[in-house]
Write a structure and sequence with these properties.
The chain is α/β, with parallel strands linked by helices and 425 residues long. The chain has helices at 8-19, 25-36, 50-59, 102-105, 152-155, 164-179, 207-218, 238-245, 262-268, 277-291, 309-319, 344-356, 380-383, 391-402, 404-407, and strands at 65-72, 77-85, 114-124, 133-137, 141-143, 158-161, 194-197, 230-234, 252-256, 296-301, 325-330, 360-363.
């Protein structure tokens, strides 16, 4: 049974004031300011009386424990594994993760006692044509129920929903890493500038929490991020897209397509069977009209499956008139999935077919692959034994290979045994 310990990030100023109703009003304001700065350990709230700090230790859930912190790309990509003790009011999600050595656990007692969440920090140093950025990719679920066969996270299954605090704290942990100099690269800001909901899980399948986290991150009395600095990704949950459109916030919507037609997308993105492309694209267009924001479409390029020039032309025909941008993502290999990215010439041919048809597109430069922090890789190195292939991925591969003639699936290209590093976008 879940204990009724309040989530401070879900309480808001009014909720904090109610929690501390026997204290002067400014005490709740002080706590709120600490939370915004990423300090959620009451022992560090040094302007509060010791007695109140001790009380908050009992009232609030403990801060997450940094179980692992790895980096790649010359210090520009950082992945963290956070442990949330399940016995302190957070959702008691069952975990299959491999906990870090005990010297790094710092109070997280066992797998049964912890919810583990991965998130990623991607840094982009300032250049002549742009300011520096520090983007946090947050998870909204532990695992994912969408079952996309090319995604290791989705193949691992859903272990549970995250709370508002568990989502927001991923940002505040990264904020502290930046402010404390953990990222020592010239031109990188010392604070979080952007947040993308593209980590573990489907954000619109945990819609109330996603909306609450977006509001907190955007709130001038909260984290105070520009709405235009926040991106929410979805595989196509149409009711959630419609509700996002009612928020009145110009956040960016990124829709994962991965196929130009329903027949192929039914296999690559199973939710397409409930919300086919015509319905999804209509909802996306309505969102763009309401928010005034340009849409982004994500398309993972998989060798021999969806990366043919003919498929690019059919995709362009569907997207013509949207004024959207297409991010082409060479597939990131994992031991659990038997597919790979196409060779660079195949990627470039797909890109050229889109741009020749008037669709703006770029090939995304893969980041974090060396630490399994790239798209579709979160949770892979903890949940899966090396060399293991998951049943759903095998089933989809078999169906696509046997029905390739009707789906215009290409044969795998020679030399595509490994993931390709695409040119930077």
């Amino acid at each position: 049974m879940t204990m009724s310990i309040p989530d401070p990030y879900a309480l808001g100023r009014g909720g904090l004031a109610a929690l501390l109703d026997d204290q002067p009003r400014y005490r709740a304001e002080q706590v709120h300011r600490w939370l915004v700065r990423g300090v959620d350990d009451p022992t560090e709230m040094t302007d509060l009386p010791r007695s109140l700090r001790a009380r908050l230790m009992e009232l609030l859930p403990p801060p997450p424990v940094l179980l692992r912190h790895t980096s790649a790309d010359g210090g520009l990509t950082h992945k963290v594994l956070l442990g949330f003790p399940a016995s302190h009011g957070l959702d008691p999600l069952r975990s299959g993760l491999e906990i870090a050595p005990r010297s790094l656990q710092a109070g997280v007692e066992s797998r049964a006692d912890a919810v583990e969440i991965e998130s990623v920090l991607m840094c982009y140093p300032a250049r002549q044509d742009r300011a520096g950025r520090a983007t946090v990719c947050v998870s909204t679920q532990a695992g994912c129920a969408m079952g996309c066969p090319f995604c290791a996270t989705g193949q691992a299954g859903l272990r549970g929903q995250l709370s508002v605090g568990q989502v927001v704290r991923q940002v505040t942990v990264m904020q502290r890493l930046l402010s404390q100099g953990a990222v020592d690269v010239p031109g990188v800001p010392d604070h979080v500038t952007n947040v993308v909901f593209m980590g573990m899980g489907e954000p619109l399948a945990n819609l109330d929490v996603t909306i609450a986290a977006v509001r907190w991150l955007h709130d001038p009395d909260g984290f105070d991020l520009s709405a235009r600095s926040i991106t929410v990704s979805t595989v196509g949950l149409v009711p959630g897209i419609r509700r996002l459109g009612e928020l009145g916030l110009p956040i960016t919507l990124a829709v994962s397509l991965h196929a130009p037609d329903d027949e192929l997308r039914d296999d690559l993105v199973p939710v397409n069977r409930q919300h086919p492309l015509a319905e999804l694209l209509a909802a996306a267009r309505q969102y763009s009209d309401r928010s005034g924001r340009r849409l982004t479409f994500e398309y993972v390029l998989i060798d021999g499956i969806n990366a043919g020039v003919d498929q690019a032309r059919r995709l362009a025909s569907r997207l013509r008139g949207f004024g959207a941008h297409v991010n082409l993502i060479p597939m990131n290999a994992t031991p659990a999935v038997p597919w790979r990215a196409p060779p660079v010439p195949v990627q470039l041919a797909f890109l050229a077919a889109l741009t020749d048809a008037g669709v703006t597109a770029t090939i995304r430069h893969n980041r974090g692959g060396a630490i399994d922090a790239a798209c579709g890789q979160l949770y892979a190195d903890y949940a899966m034994a090396s060399g293991r292939t998951l049943p759903a991925a095998v089933g989809a591969a078999e169906r696509l290979s046997t029905q390739g003639s009707t789906r215009l699936v290409m044969a795998p290209t020679q030399g595509s045994a490994g993931p390709a590093m695409a040119p930077p976008s």
